[in-house]
Input
Amino acid sequence: MAVKQKLVFRFPSSVVEQPIIYRLVKDFDLMVNILRADINPNKEGRLMLELSGSESDYRRAIEWLRSEGLRIMNLKQQIIWNEDRCTQCGACSVICPSGALGLRRPEMRVSFEEDRCIVCELCLKACPARAMESLIEDRG
Amino acid sequence: MGKERTYEEINQKIRTGKAVVLTAEEVLDLIAEKGVSGAAKRVDVVTTGTFGPMCSSGLFLNFGHPRPRIKMSEVYLNGVPAYAGIAAVDAYLGATALPPGDPRNRDHPGEFIYGGGHVIEDLVAGKEIRLEAHGYGTDCYPSKKVETSFRLSEINEATLYNPRNCYQNYSAAVNLGQKTIYTYMGILKPRLGNAYYSSAGQLSPLLNDPLLKTIGIGTRIFLGGGEGYIAWHGTQHNPSAARGENKVPLGPAATIAVVGDLKKMHWRWLRGLSFLGYGATLKVGLGIPIPILNEEIMSYCAVRDEEIYTQVVDFGRDYPHGESSELGLVSYAELKSGTVRICDRDVPAASLSSYAGAREIAGILKGWIQAGDFTLTPPAAPLPSAEAGIKLQPLPQRNPYPGGM
Output
């Protein structure tokens, strides 16, 4: 059975210099689509990506990654739309590059499709009412 | 000449629950079916609404005296300074005020997480607010410092007084420059990357009464979820702006100053906002009922987004330098579609004001009137309109000041 999953990897500084992606492709035969990657000043890495491949390969890969010290979370639900804070202006709709945030017409109300979110976090500061929240940042 | 109605006739119908009230959006369907004349015969009141960032907003406060008494000359609410150059325990908190320690734009673009608008939202939400006040001490007001906390219900007055709200139309903003800019019209991407506008268009109060024939001083309105009144024309009031054939201004024009009791308002309609790289402000919900006194008034309420145009302004260079842009006009129907044609390019467009909010406000106001709770007030005096000959002036710049300092 095929698997396609968007994930967030957090890895400690000790693992940052390892060729994680290369191993995922070469040893586990997975397709990797990197959405975003960064390394913070403490040299901890954060990688957002989509993995696809067979379910058994995927499971083996996740097991291996965990054994290497990576923390793995589902990318979905990392960016939260606080609807009670949202004033329904739609300013976010021209900032969001993936089309996850948009304006439903003719209702003229904001919609957030988590599946399309690539966790670029541009919406966090572009929303004047600060209705968008990132759990990734909070978990430090 | 169609039927004429007086305010008193309309109010009598409101009191007996017989008034026919439609929102400025709903009335469009009726007009499409029955025509302006037919709709004017049936409808007594059209309600409007808008819910957008309005920087020229703020709050007069009276805290009551501590013991011993104090003449406050410096006041901070949750760290945000309020103007204390009025009587002893009075102050004015402006929507864009920032704590002295806020980094502003030192690390550009600044975030402006918490300002005067946020304090107003927290107050009206019933949250406890930290108060720090300093005085220099006088024989009658000996205290020099007070530090305490309070809730809205525990102070004598909190009067929202907004010197300029509810712009009759507003420019659509774009950026022709080469880098992203951070403005009060939002984040504008370079090379016409996006456009922002800020008006409810066909639902917007002053666009439904373009010549201010019914909206005047003393008009009772929906303000921040409670009742308010129009106090005066707003600052920068410019009824002389260019108009289309339908009398609707083609850019920013009339404004109003509004006043109301914060204690009767709701946080949903007074929201603190943070504009990246620009500052903090307040999003104000405001709605005005329009009495359908005759067919002419109804003809103004018949205006649709397709017939309301606004100017496109380049905020990359023209606006900051005080120069006019020649980027043409776009309609609110185009803007609201999400894509607008500017300089032969399709530009993604979005709003800073909330159309869904405007629609909800017009609906709430309609409900109040239908319930008999909200009657209409004839203006105590009209606001200056197109014939007043008002001209907006730039600031004189005499440099150096001839008197010297």
In short: The mean pLDDT of chain B is 97. The interface with chain A takes residues 51-53, 109, 111, 113, 186-187, 194-196, 271, 273-276, 281, 283, 336-338, 348-357, 359 of chain B (CB under 8 Å). Helices of chain B lie at 7-15, 26-42, 116-124, 295-301, 332-337, 355-370.
